[in-house]
């Protein structure tokens, strides 16, 4: 054994304790460190021959890289719909690395058994029936990709061809209809060989991002064959929701696969005030939910659900004797693109077990209250205007005068020490959005952000 490896093994308890103290110091400083550090990267260091052991690596990390890391785990990181990691999720994630499971095969079954229990809990949380089966994946993009891959196989089934065996060329042109599809949908269509041009945008309702169901029906009536509908349960800019029950009702007259992108909107099911927004989610053929958003587990973690695990296994089955047979209840290795599948479910299992439905409902409702409060502050600040109602947990706004991307970028940069917001474009207008999903965010953080916004706007417009 290399001498540094042997030495680190001998002092492993001390190393883990030092790492624990370092992690605690980082977390304790989240509230005061710049939310996004604007310093450039350090000079590239050469790879050493002997290394120096974990303590040397920890010291160099603390000196060169840690000061440049964002406070994305903290309460005022409002970009990208990014959650943090609850204490239980953090404990589960540390243990995930310690136990180091590849939870894909029934030949070594405990990992995938734990994952299936966790997926069952999540399904209950989102109001999905036992007809839906689910699997952990790396994020919403992969969840959408898996769901649309199953949809692709369903199209083949309807047309009497086997896409998994013969390729997408056997399908002919494919039509995917959506009102406000997330960018990951087009990316998934590219990856799956269906092509970005397969995505056809259907008109939305006036002043909304939700699809016009009558316009969707007209598009379905004009479609030359079976198609895919991607519905939204929470759009990126304004957290708008399609009428899932009305869309599902159209399936009785038109043959289509209903995929619902509920990356963070699915969590509306936890709040009695907002659960109606996701009524009908269980009617979907496939569902995407991102967990490193509102479940507040560490990156990377998401789940996909489908009513057709048989088609899913047809797409992703892996014919290798060492992985075990493809049974009636396929191992996870046969259900996603990943042959290697870390035990992502453990962090989710921990936070669900630790805080239950009520704890996660409180996180959702506190985030919604925070978004409403910030929206009210934005409406009050001279020089800013809300571009849409605060429907759930995102505040979308812009400058009232000369709202160019450059001026909005300057506004966001001025805020970087106090809060992180990301740019967008809504109804053709450059904008900023603040997404609330971190379990640490409180009313004090809203007030601090609003005060920083007020100062930044005054400086920009002086």
UniProtKB/TrEMBL annotation:
Its cofactor is pyridoxal 5'-phosphate. GO terms for biological process: amino acid metabolic process; carboxylic acid metabolic process. One of its GO terms (molecular function) is aromatic-L-amino-acid decarboxylase activity. Keywords: Aminotransferase, Decarboxylase, Lyase, Pyridoxal phosphate, Transferase. It comes from the Bacteria. It holds the Pfam family Pyridoxal_deC. The modification N6-(pyridoxal phosphate)lysine is found at residue 293. The keyword NADP does not apply. Belongs to the group II decarboxylase family. This is Aspartate aminotransferase family protein. It comes from Kitasatospora xanthocidica.
